[in-house]
Specification:
mainly alpha, single chain, 8 helices
């Protein structure tokens, strides 16, 4: 019981020293997680008694950004997406795909920022704005490429589709090997 008292005292001390910008970054992590959970999971589950568990999983990376919370939260979002599209046989509208991808990326990026940003740090909005501008550029480019790829995939059928799929997998494997070799050199 004494351990729990020490943890509560440490949390109070941290909250009393917290500044606005690190708090807003963590709030952004929580908001991205909550919206991603809501969009990914079937509405029947979101409106049920499971909503408390989903909220806790979505908030976990905001509370403890240095741990595995972002990974766990992202995996739960993906499981919800699979459950909704495969289990409930919902249609797959483009806006849901882009929203989930955007929120997962922004949540991951903000979690990385929150992990290195002490809760009592004095930071300007320019630093966070630059961070968000770079993340927004990545989201925009990937959304445009997704729409283009989906447009091309509608034109590809049969052998051309298989060839394009194999080429895409080969590019992904090649990029992974390249990154691994560059990391070994460093």
């Amino acid at each position: 019981m004494a351990f729990l008292g020490k943890q509560v005292d440490a949390a109070r001390a941290t909250l009393s020293r917290a500044t606005a910008i690190p708090f807003l970054v963590r709030f952004g992590v929580a908001l991205c997680g909550l919206i991603a959970m809501t969009v990914a999971w079937p509405s029947a589950i979101v409106a049920s008694e499971w909503d408390v568990a989903l909220v806790l999983v979505a908030l976990y990376p905001a509370v403890a950004p240095r741990g595995r919370g972002a990974t766990v939260s992202a995996l739960v979002v993906v499981v919800g997406w699979i459950a909704d599209t495969a289990g409930f046989e919902d249609k797959i509208p483009l806006w849901r795909v882009l929203t989930i991808a955007t929120l997962l990326y922004l949540g991951h990026s903000l979690t990385a920022l929150a992990a290195v940003l002490p809760s009592d740090a004095v930071v300007t909005l320019d630093m966070v704005g630059g961070w968000l501008a770079r993340a927004g550029a990545v989201v925009l480019v990937s959304a445009v490429l997704t729409v283009v790829a989906l447009g091309l995939s509608a034109d590809l059928t049969g052998g051309a589709f298989v060839l394009a799929t194999i080429a895409g997998i080969a590019c992904a494997v090649g990029a992974t090997v390249l990154i691994a070799r560059l990391l070994q050199r460093a």
